[in-house]
Write a structure and sequence with these properties.
By secondary structure, this protein is an alpha+beta fold. The chain has one domain. The protein has three helices and eight strands, in the order ββαβββαββαβ. Strands 1, 2, 6, 7 and 8 form a five-stranded mixed β-sheet that branches. The longest helix has 16 residues.
């Protein structure tokens, strides 16, 4: 499981994902995410994915990406405020980016986003 989740906006597009303390682990998880999503995509076709939010027992939410009746990936532990911010930004842009983040110099600093530094992430559009 992820230690926690981070949300940022890049050009008003929501970028969300797991937050890691070790760079290598974050890169590996982001590559795993991209490979998993790629396995659901058919070349030259639009692939339908569904975004769901499931309430966890602890009151937080899990973001799930579904494709063809199967969970592609999920990001657990979104609190209500984070979920509200994400939904608002996603609703405004009709897209979001799923990636991973790395804490560079401790927990208090803004984490490093792998989609901007390494191009590791998945763009999800709402049609």
């Amino acid at each position: 499981m992820y230690s926690n989740v981070y949300l940022t906006l890049i050009n008003d597009v929501p970028v969300i994902g797991a937050r890691f303390s070790k760079h290598e682990k974050a890169v590996a998880k982001a590559k795993e995410l991209m490979n998993r999503v790629a396995s659901f995509i058919k070349a030259g076709e639009r692939t339908k994915v569904t975004v769901k939010f499931l309430l966890q027992q602890d009151g937080c939410y899990t973001l799930q990406l579904w494709g063809d009746e199967e969970v592609i990936t999920e990001v657990p532990d979104l609190d209500e405020l984070l979920l509200k911010r994400f939904r608002k930004a996603y609703g405004n842009k009709n897209m979001f980016i799923l990636t991973c983040f790395v804490n560079k110099n401790g927990e208090s600093e803004r984490p490093h986003c792998l989609v901007t530094s390494k191009g590791l992430g998945v763009v999800v559009y709402r049609l």
